[in-house]
Amino acid sequence: MRQTHKIPEIIDPQALNTTNGQEAWRLMGIMAEFAIATERLRGIRPAVSMFGSARIKQGHAYYEKTQRIARLLSDAGFSVISGGGPGLMEAANKGAHGGRSPAIGLNIILPFEQSGNEYQDVSIDFRYFFARKMMFVRFASAYVILPGGFGTLDELGEVLTLVQTGKTRKIPIILVGGEFWRGLVDWMRDKLVGEGMISGEDMNLLQIIEEPEAIVEAIFKFYEGRGFAPTRAEREKMLNL
After folding, report:
1. What pLDDT sits at residue 7?
2. CA angle at residue 33 from 29 to 81, to 5 degrees?
């Protein structure tokens, strides 16, 4: 007698009948974003990822400083990666676009606020935040964090967590704007270190630097004697983010 095997009832029957296989298509879309972005960015190292507010207008001191930092980084040989949108993301792309290295824009599709700026030598559109955030991390040799809102704080927390936990390599994390960041840094030292949430050494993962020239110098100093290319062990970490 022929035996028949039923599919175990571990799958929600409703999931098998989703309109046009929406979940499967979504997974394919996520995979496509990773594949396309990785292919297009693989030749841009060394690179610096710059984060900051989308709401700061041209003419603001933060905008001008961001543009200056990006231009110096670009002329020093670093590709500059930003979120591709307006505000300080635009300032970063604009500064790099005027230099000798590529300006990279990782654009996110949002219902409001985000629109791609015109200063992108390489432009990639993302629907999924986590795919975009991984590209900021995967290709960066340093992070430069300008003043910003929830999105900037999210990105700062992400890179601090990944470096602290050893999920990615240790690279410079530079805050720009001492007056803006000082309260947060003091709170971290008082509450997070003071109440044992992190170790005192974890505060050494970030630094505040004001002058654009000093930022470029600090990044070069960090890599002095070892080069910008990830080691074999570091490449393994990046594959397992």
Report:
1. 34
2. 155
